[in-house]
Amino acid sequence: MALSPTPHYYTIQGRAAEIARAMGSQVAGAEHLFLAMLHDGGWPVRVLSGLVDLDGAEAAVLGIINGPDYSPPPPRFPAGGSFVYPWGGRIAAQLGDSHIGLEHAFLAMIRMRDSVPARALAGLADLDALEAAVLEAKNAPLTAPADAVFLRDGQALDGALMRAVIDALPDGSTFGFNHEAAGRTWLQVIGPGDDTDPARTRQVLNTALASLDRPTISDE
After folding, report:
1. Residue 21 and residue 13: Cα distance in Å, rounded?
2. Minimal CA–CA distance to 40: which of 196, 173, 149?
3. How many angstroms separate the CA atoms of 91 and 125, rounded?
4. Distance (Å, whole) CA 48 – CA 161
5. Starting from the edge strand earliest in sequence, which strands make up the sheet with 185-190, in order?
6. In this predicted model, what pLDDT tens digit does every residue of 157-183 receive, in sequence order?
7. In CATH, what class is 4-138?
8. Domain coordinates of the chain in residue numbers?
């Protein structure tokens, strides 16, 4: 079964397309996706920030893009509209994950040592150390954020509810979710600048549940 990107991944892809267009390209490659991740500042950039200067990383990427030896992403045929080359699907499958996240995209970028992000970061940090740090954070024990909202016992974050949550998200927001070891499912809506608010999360979740005629959290 094909793996689907997370909502956050889709958001960053959109930003990457905007960055590529601003640079004169209808096709976004690893360099544009990585710049979008840096501008977003979320996962896994928070992990990288402890090991590499993020401003320096952006400057290094831009230095390569503006250099004489830079080759832009190859065009996509048939042409038309913006296109963002996908990254991370194979890594997600290798790790046995059920989704494609930005962590998978980042790992794919730095494992391809001739990609622009890998070349830029190689001058600032040890790439193997960066990969180890991302994998360590990814594999850390799952705990719900303090301001997460839990689904009712017996409720499932299935495909229909996932789509309803996406439709209910405020502009500029994304969401995270997971399952605790005890089996409870939690959700957290994340606004611009990684801003979180449990009231907003509850509102989004209740709107999504109500659209499916399912019991809302506020009915507890």
Report:
1. 12
2. 173
3. 22
4. 32
5. 149-150, 185-190, 174-179
6. 888 898 899 899 998 888 888 776 567
7. mainly alpha
8. 4-138, 149-213
